[in-house]
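Q: Could you write out the predicted structure for this multi-component system? I'm mainly interested in how the pieces pack against one another.
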Amino acid sequence: MTGTLLFQSLVLGVLLGGLYALLAAGLTLYFGVMRVVMIAHSAFLILAAYLAWFFNQQTGMDPLLSLVVTVPLFFLVGVGMQRLLITRLRPATLTMMSVLLTFAVALFIEGMIGFVWSGTQRRIQLPYSSASVEFFGAHIAVVKLVAFALAALSLALLYLIMKHSRFGQALRATIQHSEAAQLVGIKTDRVAGFGFGLGLATAAIGGTALSLDATIYPSLHWHWIGPLMAIIVVGGLGSIPGAAIAAMVLGIGQSLLQVPLGTTWAQTIFYVALFVTLMLRPQGFFGGRLAQRF
Amino acid sequence: MASRLSSRTARRRTAAVVAGLSSTALVLTACSGGESEGEGGGSDDPIVVGISLPLTGDFSEPGKGVQRGYEAWAQFVNEDGGLLGRDVELKILDDQSNADRVVQDYEALIAQDEVDLVFGPFSTRLVVPSARVADEYGMLFVEPAGAANEVFEQGFENLFYAAPAIADDHYNYLADHILDMPEGERPQTVAVASMDDPFAQGTAYGLRDKLADGGLEIVVDEVYPPNTTDFSSIAAKIDDSDADMVIGGTQYQDAVNLIVALQQLDYQPDLAAFSTAPTNPEFSAAIGSETEGILSPTGYTETASWPSNVDFVERYTELHGNPPGEDEANAYTTGQVVAAAVEAAGCAEQGECQQELISWLRTNEVETVVGPLTWDETGKPQGAHLIQQYVDGEIQIVLPQDAMEADFVYPKPAW
């Protein structure tokens, strides 16, 4: 093992962690707002990647432009899904039933992707697919850099919305104590719907970022949901900064562990972290209890 | 209140209708089941072939190719008057790339549906469990995809692999060619990355071990689980070793992702060999123009001049608009092998007939689209694979000498 390899792995880990952070942020948002375990998050992610691929295939334009359509579309789908499906679940069993409901949604999306675009594995061919920039002896792929930038930008935007907009304040109030939020005049139903839409919008961005540098196929989402679930538990369910930090730490950890341990064992870091968290600090390492300290 | 009440009644009514319909369907299927049982073995009945394939899940890409091959075979046989004068009918189930499902599927096909013949599924991981089921029922089991050595070490007496060579022998021509190069010119160091899969590892390790025995140094030897999608770290290791040659024991998406990750790191080997993926038509669409020099073994080429292949390629191309790939050809070969045995034995049903089919294949040669095939007592075919390379933007046969379409390019151009 050389220093260059170590540094290269570190850089790759940071880039991977950035993407994980964006994807986990959406997932933790649903739980924070509504106590919903959203198994279909990664299915929407793959759907967005397919839409980006399809857009590129049809128009020949850069897949990033598909965001103009997919982000608002996913936001609306998210609001609709919350208003029409999630609210129908009984509050007492909401968390458990949401697993079943969103599992079904995930299967539905996977099936539809396969039905419409077949199981053929797709990849977007870009002129800069294999281009890279040199950075202190490490190579950084341009596509990974773009994905990372996209993730960082969206996370920053999400942070601004949550911290500094009236909607964000209402959303945080709903997360912290929805009855109290109702008492001060917040329409928590509508806020929850928008929160869900916001979470799904991050899936649109994440999926587009993913499509730049991945071969996609309908069942790919199952490979993503496990690590993402582990990340949001480690980060503290409902805490966006917690999810982002946990994602970064685990992403870098995975990348670095691959050097001595190989790919098979490096993957287990997510689950080891999950077990350790549940044993030592069930409320998560970085967030407060259910994100009360966003 | 009234409207809610009526809507509830309506809902209940719908439920009753649905329940009624489904029970009717059940009765209907039960009836039709009884009927076919009554007439089973009649000379006008179609010959039913039971197959389970991964149409969804990790192996759906090659699984669908195999499906196209089987369906083309059945269609062409029926157009030519059928087998033993009977039509051929395929019954294909989806095993979702799952080894438990594949066992259930073959149990159901053989015991419940009482199919006359079975064809194998795709991928070694699914072939072994399904061959065991077929073995228990004494069914002939010709399969298009179980190429790993372990398939032939299970003691199956009913299994035949319908391709020219097992995984470990795929790269034999390439290994010989590299070891024949002068010491100073040939690659000295080799990096290997393989999926944790018996077929993928069989191909890569067959070549790796032959090169290691010939004095080349193995500097990276990575294994990754089949669900790996991010190959940047493996690529970083290979790049760091600066090996002269890279071998990928790959299926499809892993090869594409690994190659792109290697390109992103600007790693430039003298030789790059990947199994399976490069022969897939999607491969160039995914990698673009940077495929030049990539090597891959193949058991099939559409340009081969075997008589049945010329016919197969022509009819298949007419049907689908594009020539068949390796998966389609292997599936078609499976059909040809079984058909040859059926024609020779003069029967196609469960029971003693299956043993006649097996005995005939043990001792006879079958002309197929991948050339004449014979098998040893374990069902291992007795041949080697052709080596293809991307030359001038097209995948062409470069080894062995007597089959080549283009000259072997070494060192490979930068990607």
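A: Regarding packing and overall arrangement: Chain B touches chain A through 41 residues (CB under 8 Å).
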